[in-house]
Write a structure and sequence with these properties.
The protein is built from three helices and eight strands, in the order E-E-E-H-E-E-E-E-H-H-E. It is an alpha+beta fold.
């Protein structure tokens, strides 16, 4: 299998269950994420979010469409002020516990994982943005954090 970059798009933030979430989409230039996959992922998203704990309610979401039947939804939320928690749902991958190969049929992933090489392309940016806008200032600025996204373009290498 030859490795190649995928496309990273930033479709804009959403508020879900009171949390401000940046959105990142990872797909192939020749095959963007299908509307039905995006719809199914964002319908499931609230169930992946942790309960509030007093940390500014923010984080980011990665929706990744694989090159085969797989689709992946990763919800990264800031908790305990400086800890990131991730919860993942997968679709179309029977090897990961999916009931079928439908990329719009998401189920929670019940194994420890953080993300793949393409999804993790955003992680360092998010760590730095959280420190810059929430931890370092005298007053946390969640909206500045949400506005500070990784640039769109190739991701992976």
């Amino acid at each position: 299998m030859a490795f190649r970059d995928k496309d990273l798009r930033v479709p804009g933030p959403v508020t879900v269950a009171g949390r401000r979430l940046k959105r990142y989409h990872v797909d192939q230039p020749e095959r963007p994420i299908e509307p039905e996959v995006e719809k199914a992922a964002y319908e499931l998203l609230p169930s992946l979010l942790p309960e509030p704990d007093g940390t500014p309610p923010a984080g980011w979401v990665v929706l990744h469409r694989g090159t085969d039947t797989g689709a992946y939804l990763l919800a990264y939320c800031w908790t305990w002020v400086n800890l990131v928690e991730v919860r993942i749902a997968v679709a179309g991958q029977p090897v990961l516990g999916c009931p079928d190969e439908d990329p719009a049929h998401f189920v929670p992933l019940h194994r420890p994982a953080v993300g793949c090489v393409w999804e993790l392309g955003v992680l360092e940016h998010e760590r730095a943005a959280w420190a810059r806008h929430v931890l370092a200032p005298e007053r946390p600025d969640v909206e500045a954090y949400v506005a500070d996204t990784r640039a769109e373009g190739p991701v992976g290498a």
